[in-house]
Amino acid sequence: xxxxxxxxxxxxxxxxxxxxxxxxxxxxxxxxxxxxxxxxxxxxxxxxxxxxxxxxxxxxxxxxxxxxxxxxxxxxxxxxxxxxxxxxxxxxxxxxxxxxxxxxxxxxxxxxxx
Length: 114
Prior knowledge:
Layout lengths: L16 H10 L6 H10 L3 E2 L4 E2 L3 H18 L12 H12 L16
Antiparallel strand pairs: 1-2
Helix pairs in contact: 1-2
C-alpha cells in the first residue's frame, strides 16, 4: 500500500559566500561570493523582470560565468597586437600609410587641386 503522505519539495536554501566561491572554483570560475550573495539578496533572490524566485543558485553562478566569458571575448581584439615593434617601425608604418617617403617629405599635391 502506498503511503498517503505527500513529499513536500525542499525549499530554496540561500548559499553562503563560501559555498558560492567553492562551487565557482569547481567549475573553473572565480567569483566574489559576497558580491554574488549581496546582489541576489538585494533582489530578494529573484531573477528577471518578472521577479521569478530562484530555484537553483548554482545555475545563477553558471550564468555569471557565461556572461563574463562573453564580455571577455567582446573586449579581445580580433587582430593580435604586434608588441615587438620599435618606435621607428611605428613611424615607418604611419608614414607609409599616409603616402610619405622615408625622407619624411610629404608627397606633392595633385596638380588638379585648387
